[in-house]
Amino acid sequence: MGTGTLHIDLDALAANWRALDARTGCETAAVVKADGYGLGAARAATALARAGARRFFVATAEEGATLRAALGQGPEINVFSGHMATDTALIRDANLTPMLNDAAQLARHRAALPQAAYGVQLDSGMNRLGMEPADWAALRGQAEAGPLTLVMSHLAYADEPDHPQNAEQLRQFTEMTAGVSVPRSLAATGGILLGPDYHFDLTRPGIGLYGGLPFDAAQPVVRLSLPVIQTRDVMPGEHVGYGCTFTAARPTKIATLSAGYADGLIRAMSGKARLFAGNTPCPLAGRVSMDLLTVDVTDLPETPEALDILCPSQTVDHLAEATGTIGYEILTSLGPRYARRYAGETA
Ligand SMILES: *Cc1c(COP(=O)(O)O)cnc(C)c1O
């Protein structure tokens, strides 16, 4: 195997969905945008549908069409970017439900596909997507006159439970949706953890399903194993890698692994990330290059065929923390060169 192997535990994914579902008294959907946070939307969504998810969310109509082909008819597929000018055929043919974001999208959708269901996304303070309170006040009658299935909004600060923005967005969303007769949705993973006031009729977890914070009780879903191409002995004073940023202080054994920044192991990991042989950490030695990592394996009794960069000893969030980013970015950067191996009852 010349490339790394990304092991994906579909049972852990399903267990995380059930665990989040058990924290609310309402319906739990699943967000599988960005190819299921990098893990493969078709496999992830199929496993989640078996676990009981009936509504899925993606970012774009193109993602929705791909997902429909994998899931078949039945589950509802909602699209956050709504109905864009080029989306009509995809929405019709793949039976997608756009979350309409403004007056132009509402008009476009009602004119092009008058019978086709839609949701409405409201802006409750994040200022990213959705109708502002004044737009909504003007459009609500028209929106409610058609096959409206959902009214939703998104929290900007749900990973910080004490931030006052949460209560403010809750107040705004509650006010904007008073008297609405269709299901309402405000919470993603963070919002579920904020408690029942935030749950409404439907939640939309993403990151927590895939084992990431802020769902700290999540089971890990991924293990990323990178094969050793070559090992060498380096004498004290010799350098390793581009820019000579690592200099051996002792006789050092260096293993060269097949993966690099082209595979989502960002260059900022240089000098920060560790590789694991079981529970034993081995530091990166020198810079991450495009296709290769160099690792100090001197302290291992023997060099294994592969080392792990994501594993129980170094989770997605540990790696994110060490390199100044978030687990979402680590996951969604995992590149197409890895062989994705699925395990679990639902595989
Ligand atoms: C990505 C996204 C989600 C899922 O968020 P997580 O933090 O991954 O749970 C839910 N709703 C919207 C609008 C999103 O963009």
From TrEMBL:
Function: Catalyzes the interconversion of L-alanine and D-alanine. May also act on other amino acids.
Residue ranges constituting the Alanine racemase C-terminal domain according to the UniProt record: 221-343
A cellular component term, taken from the record's GO annotations: cytosol
GO annotation, biological process: D-alanine biosynthetic process
Modified residues (N6-(pyridoxal phosphate)lysine): 33
Pathway(s): Amino-acid biosynthesis; D-alanine biosynthesis; D-alanine from L-alanine: step 1/1
Signal peptide: none
Cofactor: pyridoxal 5'-phosphate
Similarity comment text for this entry: Belongs to the alanine racemase family.
One GO molecular-function entry: alanine racemase activity
Residues annotated for substrate binding in this entry: 128, 290
Name assigned to this protein: Alanine racemase
PANTHER family: ALANINE RACEMASE, ALANINE RACEMASE, CATABOLIC-RELATED
EC number: 5.1.1.1
Positions of the catalytic residues: 33 (proton acceptor), 242 (proton acceptor)
Alphabetized UniProt keyword annotations: Isomerase, Pyridoxal phosphate
PROSITE patterns recorded: ALANINE_RACEMASE
Reactions listed under catalytic activity: L-alanine = D-alanine
